[in-house]
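[Q] Does anyone have a clean structure-token version of this?
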Amino acid sequence: MLPLTEPFKFEVMPSDNELLKGQQIIGEGENEALDYVKNLFCISSYHFVYTVGNPIVIQLTDKNGYLFQFAFLSLVVNNQPKEDRLGGEGYVIEPELCKNKLAKEIVYTFTADDSGNVIPLNDVDVSYKCISTTCQIGTVKKESLEASFPQCVNGFLLARKEGYHPAKYMMSTNLNDETANVILEKYNNFSINVFVIENGKSRPLKSDETVVIDMKNELKDHTVSMIYPTQNGTQLIKGEYLVKLSLFEKGSFVVAGKTVTQCTSVPQSGVLGFLGFMEDKCFDFSTPDLNLEQVFGGGAEFTLNVENGKTINLYLIKTAVPKTVDDLDTAYATAQTAASNAAFKQPEII
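[A] Here you go.
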């Protein structure tokens, strides 16, 4: 479920925290290298169930200039339009849990300066997540926020500020007068350069080559994806990243189409859906053969410890252009083990 900002409501199921991930619909699991290439080219299904609520203002003006305006809520629940058949008070967007903020807590937010000294941080937006419900709490001003929270055991305090990595802090609010000290790490801007090692020598990319860059910091839950050279800069926090580089160049590669059945769990219709009961719905997807105009041409996987600097130079190993699935398997395996190749060059932070 994505965060709720009143009076706008936006929820998506299924989701992985705040990430919406498609699922492959062609040949899933048949071949690791082929699965990876198809993911990069978005050959996936994106079947999600949406609940969206947003206010709409109607404004009427007569010839004398008199103005009349009123508002109503446009609402879609589980991909279906919500109709008010009984009248009355209408639909209440705020979750019931968020309406009962009975716990008093104090939140202090900090960051570290360039010398590593911990200093207070203001203008931080604070929310609180209990199971699947997220409630907006307030904004830290003058180094702290004293506010009311919904009561919950082992919920998560979420702290966000532009330019800083979001912080997640486990906090139980069933006892009053608890104090939370939350540290947000500042993003550092880096320029990215990628070089191709071919026949033992390093070179820049050619005009028909692109590189997909994936960087993931598992410990701090930070992921960056970019396409070089269209994107040649990013924001990172300090720590160890698993880096995956995939080189693509112009060519032709055919992915065989097929028909597969995709199932997903969705809320049941009617009252049961609001009570949390789910049901499985399945859909058939048929796709024709797909001719890709870019082919996998090399890559590398390695770890990178990000510290202070301005520029990161990354290197990958060029492989032969695959013409068959077996060739693709070989090229992909070579890319995965590129860091152990004698010709491979370790990344540089300048």
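[Q] Thanks! Anything notable?
[A] The first strand starts at residue 9 and ends at 13.
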